[in-house]
Specification:
The complex is a heterodimer of chains A (368) and B (458).
Chain A (H helix, E strand, L loop, with lengths): L4 H19 L5 E2 L4 E2 L8 H5 L2 H12 L4 H14 L4 E2 L2 E3 L5 E3 L7 H16 L5 E6 L2 H4 L13 H11 L6 E2 L3 H6 L15 H15 L11 E7 L2 H6 L7 E6 L3 E6 L2 E3 L24 E6 L7 E6 L7 H7 L2 E5 L7 H7 L4 E7 H6 L9
Parallel strand pairs in A: 6-7, 6-15, 13-14, 13-15
Antiparallel strand pairs in A: 1-2, 3-4, 4-5, 8-9, 10-11, 10-12, 12-14
Chain B lengths: L5 H17 L2 H17 L5 H24 L5 H32 L14 H16 L9 H9 L1 H4 L7 H9 L5 H34 L7 H32 L17 H7 L2 H12 L9 H19 L3 H27 L3 H18 L3 H12 L6 H19 L3 H9 L4 H21 L10
Chain lengths: 368, 458
């Protein structure tokens, strides 16, 4: 009997999973992968002869495979068993810190974006423009990186960038020293590529000090904590023993918030705290133009912020200090010049994280 | 379609094997023919007419040869038809671009370089079908009269696209009449799983290290990392290729066929001569039977023998790819095979340690020639390999891939097989091991299509 065990097992596997695949209802969307899954393609002779049918069918089989997410966890376990310090491009650092592998840099987009910023500040030379490049976690938490794996030297590149702009009508708000000083605090998420709200606060403080204005102390705001945040690095690596993050958000009063002119409730989308992608709660995710009227006493002046998603957790602090905060995400907004011509802002802040600045292809809109 | 995919394992296999086992014996070959054509044309329907044409030409040519022979001729015309068609299509699809590029450089002409999609497995199946027609011509085998049986042989999906190169004589009897036993199927499954594991768990895994080293700037590589990289490549190509052969052999067994062995632990060899008796064995024997011996082999004097070796190995190199580095790679082996033939072999066979070191270093160097097609980068890599450059870039990779390397080394030797033989093939541990390898392989396959959209750079 023993000699048939493997045969029976194998037969059960292939026919069992085949049948299960047929019977289990298809999924529309994968929370884990944050994307719609391929659906059964419709057959046509044209699709067959152009080879698209077979291609789509294979995508469909792969995407809808029974217990897909669990197989992926098993693979992650296998990688750990092999002693790998990484999975799917995410590197496992010390103290449960996850990093994205970044050993080479294609600096073409980086240089292009520099020129767009230069054009922007030259065009609006009369406005008080400030630039900040937020370093990513691997540049600050160097001690937690696995030994011997080369990373891009972000700090040097950011410094070079700032020097390139010396003499242009732009103020540099370098937040790297402030972040380095507090690198032992919880300033970057372990399982996500963003900084924490505490990290964002450090940059807010630097910025306000540069402007010579009062800083709202963190202790004055009431904090709320959301546990069990598994971020994007976790989604990629599915590290079986990853330590989840805690998101902190602060009560800041906003009397009026509009996103692309439509009113929304408050600075946070509180529903998202209960979802997988909790970071999306900040400022209701990434949107084109968000205009916020502060409800805080003592808030004064107006500010325009060009930002990527790192900015989302920082903006609430600005709402505590500025009467009006305009937030623009250039990926979803085009009309920069009209905005600047129609409004006289007391401050303009270009706030990008390093990774976005090296890849994003929307900064040309600044120079248009 | 490839074996190492969810599509093959959980769609093609259940449907095809269900159909195949339920079909009465006399229709089994027809089923094989049809499903093999689907397997082959999946993803690129234009392959279908190419495969049909190839099958038809050799079918007709072989029958033609026999008809001419009955009339007292040898049937050279039909042989030539098959040769021209097979070598012609191989040449057209695989080498025309290479030829045009070289002619253009050499003569200053401007022959347009066509970018053709290479039909899947063309290098393998043209060699298979040619061997059949040549065998008929030599009268070592009778031509197959049943087109379905012949079609099933040519297109037989287990070995169609990546070997082993199964000659008609290997399976002629089984095509007519074969038995299917549960024991045979069980052995086939065991072999298939070992092949799948070799490919998915070892080759792909260790291969990712070479992929990363290859993407680096060779001018800054440390010597240890260069050696790690090329060792990774050596393991990758071995487990990839031998894994695919094992899967083919296993699938063959499940269908009632016995395919020839293709790899026999080549890295434990003590000489290049032995290495090539253990590496891609069906290709070596093909070149021996159909090129080396017809050229006169060793029967026409030493000078002619060395010339023959040179021709065979230049051709072997070129068979692996249309690029000069592959020719160089083949000639490299020709040189060492000749040296060993002349005087070195006896000494190597006696030595216990030196011969293994000799073989491993020579083979690793050969893989550098094989893996890097650009001659400038090839030179850079050799400089780093032998230049004694320091650096710490290898530490992380050694730590991350150390266990995978160890696994690869162990599986390159017959240790595990011997252990399995000792336990007996039906021992519960062997079964559990196989089942584990299968499930883990599936997990890796599913993960390879894992594609989280994280608007990653937001």
């Amino acid at each position: 009997m023993k000699k048939y065990i493997l045969t029976v097992f194998f037969a059960l596997c292939i026919w069992g999973l085949f049948l299960a695949d047929m019977l289990v209802p298809t999924r529309e969307f994968s929370q884990l992968e944050n994307r719609p899954l391929a659906q059964s393609p419709t057959f046509s002779t044209r699709a067959l002869f152009s080879n698209t049918y077979t291609l789509k069918y294979e995508e469909y089989v792969n995407d809808q495979f029974v217990a897909r997410d669990s197989w992926i966890t098993v693979k992650s376990l296998g990688e750990s068993a092999l002693g790998k310090q990484e999975n799917n491009g995410v590197v496992y650092g010390r103290n449960n810190q996850l990093f994205e592998e970044a050993s080479t840099l294609d600096d073409r987009q980086f240089s292009k974006n520099l020129e767009f910023i230069r054009e922007f500040v030259q065009t609006y030379g009369d406005r008080p423009v400030t630039l900040t490049i937020i370093p990513n976690s691997y540049a600050i938490l160097e001690e937690l990186l696995p030994q011997g794996l080369p990373f891009i030297d972000q700090k040097k590149l950011i410094g070079d960038y700032y020097r390139e702009l010396a003499g242009e009508p732009v103020d540099i708000c370098d937040v790297t020293p402030a972040l380095l000083e507090r690198k032992d605090d919880y300033i970057y998420y372990r399982t996500d590529h963003h900084w924490t709200t505490q990290g964002a606060y450090l940059a807010y403080r630097e910025f306000m000090e540069l402007l010579g204005r009062d800083v709202v102390a963190l202790e004055e705001l009431s904090a709320h904590e959301v546990p069990d945040f598994y971020g994007t690095y976790y989604s990629k690596a599915k590290k079986w023993n990853a330590l989840p993050d805690v998101i902190t958000w602060y009560d800041v009063k906003a009397s009026d918030v509009t996103i692309d002119l439509a009113p929304v409730e408050g600075l946070y989308d509180h529903e998202m705290w209960g979802q997988r992608d909790k970071y999306k709660a900040f400022l209701h995710g990434n949107n084109g133009l968000t205009v916020i009227q502060s409800g805080e006493e003592g808030a004064q002046g107006s500010i325009l912020v060009f930002k990527d998603s790192y900015g989302n957790s920082l903006v609430p602090f600005l709402v505590g200090s500025f009467r009006e905060v305009c937030v623009v995400d250039l990926r979803y907004y085009n009309d920069v010049s009209a905005l600047l011509e129609e409004n006289a802002y007391d401050a303009v802040w270009v706030l990008y994280n390093f990774a976005t600045l090296t890849t994003d292809q929307n900064l040309y809109k600044l120079a248009r | 379609m490839v074996f190492s995919s969810v599509l093959f394992l959980f769609r093609f296999m259940p449907v095809v094997f269900g159909l195949y086992y339920l079909t009465p014996r006399r229709w089994k070959n027809a089923v094989l023919f049809v499903v093999s054509l689907i397997f082959y044309s999946w993803g690129e329907i234009r392959y279908f007419p190419i495969m049909m044409a190839s099958t038809l030409v050799d079918y007709v040519a072989s029958l033609g040869i026999e008809r001419r022979r009955a009339k007292g001729f040898r049937g050279r015309g039909y042989l030539a038809l098959s040769m021209i068609f097979n070598l012609g299509s191989l040449g057209f699809f695989k080498y025309s671009g290479f030829l045009a590029e070289n002619l253009n450089t050499l003569l200053g002409t401007s022959i347009p370089v066509l970018s053709l999609t290479l039909p899947l497995g063309i290098s393998f199946y043209t060699f298979q079908t040619m061997s059949y027609t040549i065998d008929v011509y030599w009268n070592t085998v009778e031509a197959e009269r049943n087109f379905i049986n012949f079609g099933a042989y040519v297109t037989l999906f287990p070995q169609l696209i990546a070997g082993p190169i199964v000659r008609y004589t290997d399976v002629a009897r089984e095509l007519q009449d074969r038995t299917h036993t549960v024991e045979g199927v069980g052995k086939g499954i065991q072999t298939f799983i070992m092949g799948l594991g070799s490919k998915v768990l070892i080759a792909n895994n260790i291969g990712s290290l070479w992929t990363r080293v290859e993407a680096m700037d060779f001018a800054t590589l440390s010597t240890p990392l260069a050696w790690l990289g090329i060792t990774a490549f050596a393991l990758q190509i071995y487990f990839d290729f031998s894994g695919y052969s094992l899967m083919a052999i296993g699938l063959g067994k499940m269908l009632g066929f016995d395919f020839p062995q293709n790899f026999n632990y080549p890295y434990i060899s003590k000489s290049i001569t032995e290495f090539w008796r253990r590496w891609h064995m069906t290709l070596g024997s093909w070149f021996r039977e159909y090129v080396y011996i017809p050229l006169g082999g060793n029967r026409k004097g030493a000078a002619r023998q060395y010339f023959n070796i040179l021709v065979v190995w230049a051709a072997t190199g070129l068979w692996h790819g249309a690029s000069w580095n592959f020719v160089l790679w083949g000639l490299y082996f020709a040189v060492f095979l000749s040296i060993e033939k002349a005087f070195l072999l006896k000494g190597l066979e006696k030595s216990r340690v030196f011969s293994h070191l000799y073989l491993l270093i020579l083979v690793l160097v050969s893989w550098v020639l094989f893996a890097i097609t650009d001659f400038t980068r090839l030179g850079q890599f050799f400089t780093r390999l032998f230049g004694g450059y320091g650096g710490s870039d290898w530490i992380y990779y050694l730590r991350s891939y150390g266990i995978t390397f160890a696994l690869g080394f162990v599986c390159s030797t017959p240790v595990l097989r011997k252990l399995g033989d000792k336990l007996g093939e039906n021992h519960l541990l062997v079964t559990l091991f196989s089942a584990g390898v299968f499930l883990l392989s599936v997990a890796y396959l599913v993960d390879s299509t894992y594609n989280p959209f994280l608007y990653f750079r937001f």
